[in-house]
Amino acid sequence: MYLPRDASRTRVREAEHARRNRAEIVRSLSSGEITRRDLFRWGTFTSLGMLAHVNGLSPFASSAFAQDVPTGTPRSPLFGALPFSQPMPRLDLQKPRHLKAVARGAETDVHFPDGMKQPPGHRLSYHTDFTESGGTAFRNPYHNVGPMEGRPPGEYFAHQRWEEYLPEVGYVMTLGRCGTGVKFHPAMPDQGIDQVWSLSPNMRGRCTLPPPLIKLRYGEPALFRLYNRLHPNPTKNGGFGSNSQSTHNHNAHNASGSDGAANTHFYPGQFYDYHWTTTLARADLINQAATDRRASGPAKRGTGLERVPGDFRELQGTLWFHDHRFFYTAENVYKGHVGMLNYYSGPDRGHEGLSDGINLRLPSGTELDWGNIDFDVNLIISDGATDQDGQYFFDIFDTRGFCGDMMLVNFAYKPYFEVLPRKYRFRVLSAGMSRFVELGLLNPQGNPMPFQVIATDGNLLVNPVTVTRLDPMGPGERFDIVVDFSVFQRGSRITMINTLEHANGMKPKGSVSIADALRGVPDDPAVGGVMEFRIVDAVESVDNPGKIHRRGDPDRSRVPGQLTQPIPIVQPIRTRVIEWKGEADVGVGQTGECFPDCGEKEVFPWTVRINGVSQHFLNANRSSLLVPRPGEVEHWTLVNTSGSWSHPVHLHLEEGVTIDRAGGPMTAIERANPRKDVWRLGPDGGTTVNVQVRFGEFGGAYVSHCHNTVHEDFGMLFRFDVLTDPANPENSQVHVNVIPTPKPSPEGVTYVTPEILPEGNPFDPTFNPFPGRPV
What we know:
The chain has four domains: 1-75, no CATH class; 92-280 and 315-344, Immunoglobulin-like (Sandwich); 377-550, Cupredoxins -  blue copper proteins (Immunoglobulin-like, Sandwich); 574-760, Cupredoxins -  blue copper proteins (Immunoglobulin-like, Sandwich), CATH 2.60.40.420. The protein contains six helices and 45 strands. The longest helix has 23 residues, at 9-31. Residues 620-723 form the Plastocyanin-like domain.
């Protein structure tokens, strides 16, 4: 994967030359001068969708100087940066803006504070106003052509249940090009203007690091407005990334128009309004009168509760948001379009000192009424790589997956973090593109130390689980852990370590011993220390800047023996068998249409097959699975048939309960009955997982996909549609049917009529609700 540390200068130059040649091809792809189909025709890609082993192009071709040794990829130069030599940056906490409801005829708008000079939030997109004006008003200020909002027009993408979940707070951010001083370590070079694209509250559009953090509470819906301030020229991308993007809230219960993955990318100069409802799942079925105090959020002021309808067992906690532009997700997320979301509820209040019979008092702090983060810390774990000039680099040509060689925490190279000798909660996100990580903690003597796992993928476990090493984490997975530092003296150092080795992006090669990880693995520089915790006597408060927390201050937090209640496994209305297929299956009964960005028939290496019928890769205009009625329980069998690959499979809109794992035992964490939205399928953990899912609340188009985002971008994704209940007057009556597919362009959005595949459609007479049994 990467050249050895002692590689000769000649071999490094050869590999760097091949990398620059590939970057030139990326620039031509970005400008539209060539297509992916051209690369197949020219032999640049093999029939399996992989880069051909051509010297001077492929990082895996035989070296001209040593024919029996693959060239690999040059390692990222560190410019003298040492591990654990910079403080870890906390995520950039965003300030909510309180919105005011204002009637406008039959509609209700929400207005931002006067000084912000923002257009009001509409139920309908401003694209609708642009269309009704004949294109004379509400135009894109960048080029005065097309609408100023990228959200598609009309009722299909109007905000569902707008009045019921009217936004009370707003967040305005920009996706922009690099400002000065954006770097991964003080010793490393500044990144070029288009090497990193990240989110910032700066309306001038200059990106900053670290990524943002937004705190939301149940009972307080939000409007998230994102401006695209990237360059209109798609070739101004630093070698990778698309300037049209879409933001996915992973994995809140939001309507499809605000899910960020319904082919709703938008362009430079436009903004997009996302309606984040903070809806608790099963709001239409369970606890409809909101009488259960556990189903609640913190009150606006004080330490009380605001009750909400829904099932308290499905309260979410640790989420994140990231780009979901079809065929460019990996490049755009890697480039910096990422942030984290903390959801706060009655049981998970973010106030460790409050004892009211509902609050769990998990480590957090006491300075704020809710949402304290002094002792509740977000960690975005990712892997990056640079070229020999120190500029951020991504290789789109390895369709098996991309693994970087620099471990980053909150986009900082191997930092340290100062902690008091007390309990801390860490919300750990695995945010690499293809790399799985296996994280553990080592005490000052280099021995594994125990810690407690309290949540996974944003949901509390029924009971905490004590481990010394986390389960392997695929991209998109989260674990919330509690670490007790109280036994350590000032100056002690605790190391977070990754013990999972990769030889390439297809899957983990395997776990290594702690001793080997500490020494370093020659073929995978990302194995070893990730960050360091340092015990100190005093730290400044984040929640109340200027206040100093000191050793000896009372630790009011606790981790109770039961955190929530389990959701039982019940008899399903129907089952689905979803196979995730790879290179060996290419061309076998495979459809060849893709949308968007594919004008010709192409072959991609990663496909999906549902209920044993046709296999296909992504087409946003093809509904592969239809959920006809909200509230119905389904069992899905997720099967990895792609050989010796690993796939972290992600489900949008809903989470599910893991029933069992065939071909491999469930881990102690999995047996703790967590709800999850990412399931790891692979030879190391069993190729088949059975899960229980139940959809509800909102209708429209969603997706499920492999969260190895390189596999996703090369076709391993399918669309599914959820229909609303026409008997519920609160629901959108537009979404009682499958909606058309948006087709965005800088000039505006049009619609195309989707296809519904019979194998996923319960209304089709050939549909089998229980695959494996006779129809």
